[in-house]
Amino acid sequence: MILVVGAKGMLGRDLMRVLPGDVRGVDIEEIDITSPESVRRVILTLKPRVVVNCAAYTDVDGCETNADLAMAVNGEGVGHLAAVTREIGALLVQMSTDYVFDGVKESPFLEDDPPNPLSVYGRSKLMGEEQARETPDHLIVRTQWLYGLGGKNFVETMLRLSTERSEIAVVDDQIGSPTWTVDLALAISELIENNCRGTYHAANRGICSWFDFARAIFAEAGVEMTVRPQTTAQLGRPAPRPLYSALCCDKLTRDTGLELEGWREALATYLEKRREAGLS
Ligand SMILES: NC(=O)c1ccc[n+]([C@@H]2O[C@H](COP(=O)([O-])OP(=O)(O)OC[C@H]3O[C@@H](n4cnc5c(N)ncnc54)[C@H](OP(=O)(O)O)[C@@H]3O)[C@@H](O)[C@H]2O)c1
């Protein structure tokens, strides 16, 4: 059985739909990953062969002012999962992020590039990676710029704002790959099926800025909106972000045969699924 922890989150929900076979999902009501007792109780009872951890404190700016909580959930929480999965011989799949890198590179980051997080969130997720490596049977999947049905994400924010105004400023100096959670869930499924271990990057193909992404969202959705470019410094968010954080996904393709679709095609499919689900 595969156990998805954080199953009610944005990625967790799509993993519950995409993973094959016997899949169970739990969220904070059943397992609080900051509590070693709750982690032990649930995992020792269910005895899964794979645990996929999607539970995290994902508010990047919130982490700056709640560093203790960030470290407890994103760092130590993973340690509690690693200790129990090690004990029962289960694989631990830990989700991680491009924010473990500093963004000071001119080509996509490789799995073994040295991490150098700029933010509390990035440091807490790096601690989570280190904790996951405490069990030999681990798979760390770094991803970025996620959006999916039912989640709080950039696509949904842009579509909501388009009902409230006709002009918006979006940062044009952060570069990455917008990634649809369904495509990411497929990549995770393939990594598990192919018995991959260690660290992998998984993101939709191609890179763009948030400004490019916003323009694509409005174009694909057929919405009139004036998008003005803005710098990260002008936006002035509490947490520093890497300026260039494209992830090289060649290792995923080499070891599974899977190449994720381009970000623009994925966006078009997502918007189609939204319409089918009755969302405007
Ligand atoms: N979103 C992105 O752009 C992005 C980019 C790169 C990597 N990632 C990583 O991908 C993974 C999934 O992200 P996501 O966006 O799907 O996250 P999400 O929607 O925020 O879901 C996280 C889930 O974890 C739960 N949770 C929070 N604290 C918990 C705890 N102590 N114990 C158990 N569950 C807890 C949350 O419950 P509540 O909602 O009740 O708090 C929520 O259901 C995370 O590891 C994240 O760091 C995300």
TrEMBL record:
Entries under Pfam families matching the protein: RmlD_sub_bind
The enzyme's E.C. designation: 1.1.1.133
MF (Gene Ontology): dTDP-4-dehydrorhamnose reductase activity
Biological process annotations from GO: dTDP-rhamnose biosynthetic process; polysaccharide biosynthetic process
Gene3D superfamilies (UniProt xref): NAD(P)-binding Rossmann-like Domain, UDP-galactose 4-epimerase, domain 1
Reactions that this protein is recorded to catalyse: dTDP-beta-L-rhamnose + NADP(+) = dTDP-4-dehydro-beta-L-rhamnose + NADPH + H(+)
Keyword Protein transport: no
Keyword Oxidoreductase among UniProt keywords: yes
A GO term from the CC aspect: cytosol
EC top class, as a word: oxidoreductase
Pathway membership: Carbohydrate biosynthesis; dTDP-L-rhamnose biosynthesis
Top-level division of the source organism's lineage: Bacteria
Family annotation (SUPFAM superfamilies): NAD(P)-binding Rossmann-fold domains
Assigned keywords, A-Z: NADP, Oxidoreductase
Stretches assigned to coiled coil: none
Residues of the RmlD-like substrate binding domain: 2-273
Record family assignment: Belongs to the dTDP-4-dehydrorhamnose reductase family.
NCBIfam families hit by this protein: rmlD (TIGR01214)
Role: Catalyzes the reduction of dTDP-6-deoxy-L-lyxo-4-hexulose to yield dTDP-L-rhamnose.
Record's protein name: dTDP-4-dehydrorhamnose reductase
Organism: Geobacter sulfurreducens (strain ATCC 51573 / DSM 12127 / PCA)
Lineage: Bacteria, Pseudomonadati, Thermodesulfobacteriota, Desulfuromonadia, Geobacterales
